[in-house]
Each structure stands twice: as structure tokens, then as C-alpha cells.
């Protein structure tokens, strides 16, 4: 394996972002077949990049390609100040897969002027600009400039504000010419006609209003995004030839058929077969998966990730999944909502080998799929916790002073320092492996009944499941926690994050909008209000801290809220979901927010992190056969992004 110089987890930093690198432990010990499998799957993962960028905004690709041309073609020394501002804006666009902040969803405003941009574009040879559909450079600028520079035009990628048309006020590129009501009516009719085991209608389409009414444009080989999908299929086909077993080959075959047809019944069949594949060491996700980027939670963004098992760490998750029925039976929820038989729950700790689409540059630290409730109920789910990603986060955060600034006292800091990493990993395991797979809907309840609040409620449900069981003696009995009080580390940092420190990710005066942040705020503020002194915010030396007075009572509160959140999901109680989210998860105390931002700014820490992928370099023999695959960690952020645009830029 090739490594250049000393490995540094932390790399380039700009705006509110810090780039990190992740290592591939034990990669050199994989077989040649496994290395080739990872390489081919990684290429398939990178082929979907432009799909995600286009999904995140109708003008994103043209803006990105224009900026990249300016970045590479302009004389930087001619106007260094504006060139540096353009470079910063482009790096942020790369990071967010478009012009909207990856977390806040607000439009990123350029620091350079429209006049500079127009003049710069006119300096570039026309054949180097994305001119498809334009007759002149002026036409290109006239379309892009209002979107880039006018804060009132398409201001937000995903809008979740209560009381407005979420479709018409969101800039994501999933709908065109339709209203929220029209979308809901269209898909409700499809679901009603399909009955039980209905596919996830709309998952892989754009819904538009044309001359003949509403029409779905399907993302498939000979449809929308076809050029990128054809390349994905090509690399998947190569991967199939070196798969570890026949089940992996079957999974890839079904995925290719789905990409070719766009048939969601095939996607469900693929998902079920993907669940069954447990024997191989290498696994992957590739497709239209998560719906957080759609304000209605219907359309899925494209994402890809390649992974291989961390066999030693998987012992932890296997212990949890092997006891899934015990956890379900002892959950503090109404017995009507419990699964009588927990099926097919599996979990592994894995190392990420390649990130792509909506998993790049930022990625989840744990994943539980498939998302369809009926598949979970009948066939189970597969969970992963990504160990080398969490390791990179932890290594990069060592010694940054964050915990010392916000944790209330030395005793609490000591328990957080001793048990923080293991408790965070275990909570992620419980969240992904059991939380998302627990409980059941009552007969006749639609999985989409909670509408725009569904994602927040689901994440709260999984988090609460993990929080409740973190303090259970069962975890010590299984040997997963070293100390009966270790759970206090997680309880403290979770409450601190939900009440205070996650506010570092929000601009002053803004509401909380991202589903995971809303979930944490909901749990923390609800327990603060209902805790009768179990937890409180206190002042010490002019600073606000979280103080937990009764950890056992806090656990009971988590159990009470879990029971209510599960009831809301199981019964499809939209009004109760709306009340919980709007009352506890959205609004921010401005005075506390200002204090947290001031304290955080002094630490000089970037609030958001993302990753630079490793580079795979196949080693060929004289007959052009791959005889090894080397890994290079040295590629710079801008070099990687420009290379991806050149090698995998299949869409215009």
C-alpha cells in the first residue's frame, strides 16, 4: 500500500468546513479478488456524482462547471482578491454538491460581485463553457446570475417551514410546476391502488406538470440521468465478475435490472436480496436511497458507499443484533406497537472504502436499510456502523478544547473523556441496528402519514431507543459497556448537544431545520421541560452549562418520550407529530445562541467536517490484468474534485 509522508487526518480548512482523510485499515490483507471488487464498486460509486448535484438544484451543474472553468482558466494574479473569493465559493459548492449549504439548506452567497463573474466568463473561450441550450455567453450569465446572486430567488434547497407550500418554496430539483397538494394527491392515489407491500412510489422520479397533466420522469438507463446510470451499470457489471459469492452476483444483477427499467418492484426485490447477503466481506450501497432532501420525504437522492467488514469490531454489533428480540420485548412502548417476531436484523462494523453522491464529502457514521417499512417487518434490516469514519472524526477532534469549554465540571469531563468514544459508537449501533428496525405500524397506517415531520420523528424514535437502552444492565451483561455508569457520558453529551452545542451549526436568527438536528433538539427540550429538575441549564462564572441532577430519572423520561413517539408513528398521528416538532425542535433561544456562538468562535473549530477519498491505483501486468490495487491518500481536495468532474462528469 502506498502512503505519502505522515498520515494526517485533518486536511484543508475553509469557510465553516474542515476536510479530513480516512484510512483503510487492513486493506492490504484483503485478497486480490476483494481489492478488485472494491475498486470496480468504487468506480460505480463515483459515476453518480453529477446526479446528486443536479437533484440538489436545477442550475447546480451549470454553475459548478462554469466555476471550475474559471478556476482553471483565469489568471489568478490578475485579480487575486476576487479569484480567491471565487475559489472559496467553488470549494463550498463542491462540498455541498451545489449552491445550497449542505446542512442548513440556505443558498451560499458568493463574496465576489456579479460584475466580476460576468466579466470573467467573457474571458473564457466559449468551447470551454457549459453552453448546451445557450446561444451566447450572455444567455448563460443571464440565467445563472440571478440564481447565484439574488438571495430572493430560489433561496432554500429544502424548506420545512410550517404553513407554506413546501414544494413550491424548495429549490430541490424533484418537482416542476406542481404544488404540495398535487404531489400528495398523486402519490396517495398510487399507494391506495397498490395496497399492501406498496413500492416507494416516486422514489426514483421527478414529478412535472406538462401539457397532459402530471408526469413522472424516471431516472433510469434510457431515461433521466441515463448517461451517468449507463456508466454505473458498466462498473457494476465489472464488479459482478469478481464478486465474492453468488448472492452478491444476484444482488448486482437485480440492481442493474432496476437501473435499466426504473421498476420499483425490482428495487424492492433487490433490497430483499441485498439483506440476505451476509457471507461476503465487501458490501455496498448504490442508488436512490434517502429522502431527507425532499421536503415531503418522497424523492430519494443518489448516493453510494463501498465498505468492507471490520471483523474485530463487528463482535459488538453482532451481540446487539443477536439479542434484538429481547430489546424489542423490553421496550417501554405499548405492546400493540411491538413486533411479535423480530426478523432478519443484522449488523456489522465496517470500514468505508469509497464515498459518493449524497455520502460525499459528508457521510453518515451509521446506516440502516432498507427504508421500506413492509420490508423491515417481513424481512428485516441490515445495519452498519462505519468505524474508520468515526475514528477520523475522533482523531481530528483530540485536544481542540471543545469538551473543556462546554462540559460543566471536571468529574463530568472525566467520564466523558473515558467513555465518550465507546458510548457514542454503541449508541450509533443501537440507533441503526435496533432503533430503526423496532416497532411496527398499525394495520392501514401509511408510512408517509407524518408527511414533512416523518424524518424527524423517525430519527427521534431511533435515538430514543438507543438512549433508553444505554443505561440498561443488559449492555453490561453482554460485555458492551465496561462500567454501570458509563452511559452517563452519552446522556450528558447528548443533552449538551441538543440544548446548546449543535447551535454552533446555525446562523444567528435562524430556525433549526435539518431533521437530525430537530430530532436532538426535540428530545433535549422535551426532557428539559418535563424533567422536574432531572436536568437543567445553569450559570457558572457567567457561562451556561447543562447540569444533570438525576440520571435515572432522565432515563425514565427518555422511555416516556419513546413511548409517545412510537405511538405517533404507529398510529400515523400527524397532528401530534407536528405539535412535538414545532414546539420543541424548531425555535432557538437567541440569547443562549449568541453565547454559544461566542464561546465556540474562540475555540477556532470548524463546525462541519467532510472527507477526501483515497485514490485506488490498479497495478497491471503485461497483459493489462490487474495484479494488485494500491491506495494513495495524498490527493488534494481541489485536485480530487476537478478530477471527478473530468472523469465522471457525465451530465450537462
Secondary structure: elements and pairs:
Elements: E1 10-14, E2 17-21, H1 32-46, H2 49-55, H3 60-73, H4 80-96, H5 114-122, H6 137-149, E3 175-176, H7 180-194, E4 205-210, E5 213-218, H8 226-240, H9 246-261, H10 264-276, E6 282-288, E7 302-309, H11 314-322, H12 324-329, E8 345-357, E9 366-369, H13 373-379, E10 381-386, H14 387-397, H15 402-406, H16 410-435, H17 454-470, H18 473-477, H19 487-499, H20 515-530, E11 535-540, E12 543-548, H21 551-571, H22 574-584, H23 590-603, E13 608-612, E14 615-620, E15 626-632, H24 637-648
Parallel strand pairs: 2-13, 3-4, 8-10
Antiparallel strand pairs: 1-2, 4-5, 6-7, 7-8, 9-10, 11-12, 14-15
Helix pairs in contact: 1-8, 3-4, 5-6, 8-9, 9-10, 11-16, 16-17, 16-19, 17-20, 17-21, 19-20, 20-21, 20-22
Overall description:
The chain has 652 residues and is of the alpha+beta class. Helix content is 47%, strand content 14%. The chain contains 24 helices and 15 strands. The strands form five sheets. It has a five-stranded mixed β-sheet with strand order 6-7-8-10-9. Strands 1-2-13 form a three-stranded mixed β-sheet, with helices on both faces. The chain has a three-stranded mixed β-sheet with strand order 3-4-5, with no helix packed on it. Helix 5 runs antiparallel to helix 6. It is globular, with a radius of gyration of 24 Å.
Amino acid at each position: 500500500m502506498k502512503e505519502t509522508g505522515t498520515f494526517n487526518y485533518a486536511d484543508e480548512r475553509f469557510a465553516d468546513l474542515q476536510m479530513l482523510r480516512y484510512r483503510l485499515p487492513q486493506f492490504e490483507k484483503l485478497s486480490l479478488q476483494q481489492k478488485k471488487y472494491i475498486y470496480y464498486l468504487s468506480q460505480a460509486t463515483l459515476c453518480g456524482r453529477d446526479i446528486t448535484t443536479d437533484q440538489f438544484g436545477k442550475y447546480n451543474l451549470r454553475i459548478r462547471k462554469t466555476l471550475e472553468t474559471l478556476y482553471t482558466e483565469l489568471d489568478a494574479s490578475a485579480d487575486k482578491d476576487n479569484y480567491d473569493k471565487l475559489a472559496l465559493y467553488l470549494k463550498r459548492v463542491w462540498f455541498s454538491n451545489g449552491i445550497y449549504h449542505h446542512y442548513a439548506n440556505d443558498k451560499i452567497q458568493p463574496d465576489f460581485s456579479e460584475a466580476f463573474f460576468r466579466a470573467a466568463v467573457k474571458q473564457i473561450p466559449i468551447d470551454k463553457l457549459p453552453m448546451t441550450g445557450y446561444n451566447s455567453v450572455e444567455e448563460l450569465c443571464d440565467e445563472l446570475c440571478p440564481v447565484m446572486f439574488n438571495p430572493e430567488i430560489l433561496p432554500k434547497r429544502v424548506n420545512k417551514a410550517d404553513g407554506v407550500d413546501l414544494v413550491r418554496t424548495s429549490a430541490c430539483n424533484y418537482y416542476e410546476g406542481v404544488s404540495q397538494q398535487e404531489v400528495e394527491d398523486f402519490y396517495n392515489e398510487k399507494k391506495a391502488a397498490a395496497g399492501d407491500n406498496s413500492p416507494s412510489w416516486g422514489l426514483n422520479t421527478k414529478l412535472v406538470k406538462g401539457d397532459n397533466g402530471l408526469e413522472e420522469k424516471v431516472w433510469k438507463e434510457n431515461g433521466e440521468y441515463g448517461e451517468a446510470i449507463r456508466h454505473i451499470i458498466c462498473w457494476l457489471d465489472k464488479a459482478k465478475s469478481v464478486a465474492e459469492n453468488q448472492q452478491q452476483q444476484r444482488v448486482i444483477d437485480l440492481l442493474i435490472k432496476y437501473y435499466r427499467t426504473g421498476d420499483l418492484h425490482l428495487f424492492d426485490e433487490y433490497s430483499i436480496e441485498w439483506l440476505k447477503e451476509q457471507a461476503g466481506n465487501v458490501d455496498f450501497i448504490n442508488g436512490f436511497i434517502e429522502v431527507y432532501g425532499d421536503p415531503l420525504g418522497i424523492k430519494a437522492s443518489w448516493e453510494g458507499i463501498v465498505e468492507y467488514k471490520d471483523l474485530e469490531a463487528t463482535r459488538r454489533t453482532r451481540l446487539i443484533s443477536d439479542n434484538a428480540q429481547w430489546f424489542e420485548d423490553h421496550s417501554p412502548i405499548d405492546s400493540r406497537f411491538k413486533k411479535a417476531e423480530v426478523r432478519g436484523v443484522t449488523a456489522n462494523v465496517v470500514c468505508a472504502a469509497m464515498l459518493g453522491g449524497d455520502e460525499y464529502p459528508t457521510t453518515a457514521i451509521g446506516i440502516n436499510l432498507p427504508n421500506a417499512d413492509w420490508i423491515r417487518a417481513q424481512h428485516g434490516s441490515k445495519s452498519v456502523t462505519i468505524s474508520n469514519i468515526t475514528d477520523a472524526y475522533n482523531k481530528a477532534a483530540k485536544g481542540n478544547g471543545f469538551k473543556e469549554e462546554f462540559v460543566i465540571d471536571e468529574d463530568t469531563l472525566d467520564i466523558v473523556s473515558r467513555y465518550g468514544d465507546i458510548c457514542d459508537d454503541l449508541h450509533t449501533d443501537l440507533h441503526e441496528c435496533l432503533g430503526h428496525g423496532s416497532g411496527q405500524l398499525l394495520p392501514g397506517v401509511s408510512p408517509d402519514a407524518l408527511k414533512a415531520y416523518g424524518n424527524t420523528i423517525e430519527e427521534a424514535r431511533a435515538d430514543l431507543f438507543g438512549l433508553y437502552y444505554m443505561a440498561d444492565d443488559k449492555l453490561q451483561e453482554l460485555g458492551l459497556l465496561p462500567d454501570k455508569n458509563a452511559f452517563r457520558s452519552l446522556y450528558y453529551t447528548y443533552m449538551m448537544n441538543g440544548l446548546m452545542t449543535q447551535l454552533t451549526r446555525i446562523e444567528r436568527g435562524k430556525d433549526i431545520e435539518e431533521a437530525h438536528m430537530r430530532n436532538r433538539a426535540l428530545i433535549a427540550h422535551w426532557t428539559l421541560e418535563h424533567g422536574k429538575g432531572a436536568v437543567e441549564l445553569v450559570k457558572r462564572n457567567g457561562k451556561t452549562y447543562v447540569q444533570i441532577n438525576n440520571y435515572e430519572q432522565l432515563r425514565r423520561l427518555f422511555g416516556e418520550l419513546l413511548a409517545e413517539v412510537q405511538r405517533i408513528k404507529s398510529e400515523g398521528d400527524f397532528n401530534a407529530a407536528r405539535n412535538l416538532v414545532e414546539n420543541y425542535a424548531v425555535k432557538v433561544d437567541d440569547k443562549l445562541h449568541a453565547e454559544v456562538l461566542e464561546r465556540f468562535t474562540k475555540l477556532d473549530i470548524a463546525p462541519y467536517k467532510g472527507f477526501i477519498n483515497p485514490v485506488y491505483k490498479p497495478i497491471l501486468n503485461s497483459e493489462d490484468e490487474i495484479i494488485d490495487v494500491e491506495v494513495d491518500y495524498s490527493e488534494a481536495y481541489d485536485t480530487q474534485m476537478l478530477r471527478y468532474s473530468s472523469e465522471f462528469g457525465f451530465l450537462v
